[in-house]
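Whiteboard transcription, Tuesday session. T.W. wrote the structure tokens on the left side:
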């Protein structure tokens, strides 16, 4: 490793850190890598994500993951086994008025997936549910139903794709508002 490469602490720097801190950093890295892999595997199963480039994983997965804007759902404890993976996940953002306007413009223009900058994901108080990834409608509804526990306050705006994934009745129970897809 060269001195100009600051992406990973050198052995000298790591040895100067408190061993407990080093252990926590290693655990966090492992958790991020594991979650990243699980999310990417779930996305690969959906036609709407299959043709994304590797470069897209930064804004689709990593940026929301490190900003705690990926809510990963796991099966109930009684359903968990050694081979059970995630049930599904929700991709969401809490944005400013300015970013809200950018999201609405992208929706009007048919942009998918949405393009948010790193700092946009947590820029304000307006909650957007961008996508729910699950293997079927029933599981999608379950993930969506539990999502309200993640976003406890504020309005919840939905990307139009959410309306195609679950029944309108479910959305009404959540108090979520659909975003029109047409200009006007």
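and on the right, the sequence the group agreed on:
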């Amino acid at each position: 490793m060269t001195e100009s490469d600051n992406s990973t602490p050198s052995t000298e720097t790591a040895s100067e850190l408190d061993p407990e801190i080093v252990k926590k950093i290693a655990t966090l890295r492992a958790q991020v890598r594991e979650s990243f892999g699980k999310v990417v595997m779930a996305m690969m199963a959906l036609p709407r994500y299959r043709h994304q480039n590797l470069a897209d994983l930064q804004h689709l997965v990593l940026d929301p993951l490190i900003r705690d804007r990926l809510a990963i759902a796991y099966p109930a404890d009684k359903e968990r086994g050694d081979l059970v993976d995630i049930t599904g996940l929700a991709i969401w953002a809490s944005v400013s008025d300015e970013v809200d306007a950018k999201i609405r413009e992208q929706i009007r223009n048919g942009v998918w997936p949405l393009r948010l900058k790193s700092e946009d994901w947590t820029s304000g108080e307006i909650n957007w549910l961008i996508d729910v990834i699950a293997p079927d409608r029933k599981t999608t509804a379950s993930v969506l139903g539990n999502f309200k526990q993640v976003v406890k306050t504020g309005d919840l705006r939905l990307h139009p794709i959410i309306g195609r994934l679950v029944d309108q009745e479910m959305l009404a129970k959540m108090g979520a508002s659909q975003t029109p897809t047409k200009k006007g």
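Someone added at the bottom: The chain has one domain: 11-178.
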